[in-house]
Amino acid sequence: MELVADRLWLAADGSVKPFDGDMDDYQKFVLDRAKQAGMKPTQVREEVTAAAPTPAAAPKVEKKKGPSPSTLRHAVKKAEDRMTQLTADLARLDDDLANAPVKDPKKLEGLTRARAKTQAELDQAEAEWIAAEEALAEVA
What we know:
By secondary structure, the chain is mainly alpha-helical.
């Protein structure tokens, strides 16, 4: 049980709460409760065994019908092309910002907004590219 569980919960006295301790502490807790209730140790073992969760049958994994590998490769290529374009746009905007006259705050504000929008689009394109690459790796 300790190999598969990282946390123990105690369901007793009409409540469920975290159990502070390991399996040895739990065994001691159950035996102490049994002594208080006047049960024999064999009855306690049977009760603990009956209360132990049985492993559920592994759910059947059905193969999902999803996009074909060629569709996913196309999505990857499309995202890469979009990222290339947006990266070039960012470089152009950075250059424009570096060379913009400081005396023209409206132009600086427009360039700053355009850069922020382009950066957000690039972030989205990167997320789409990552998702497409992961989906392609799953079907490949």
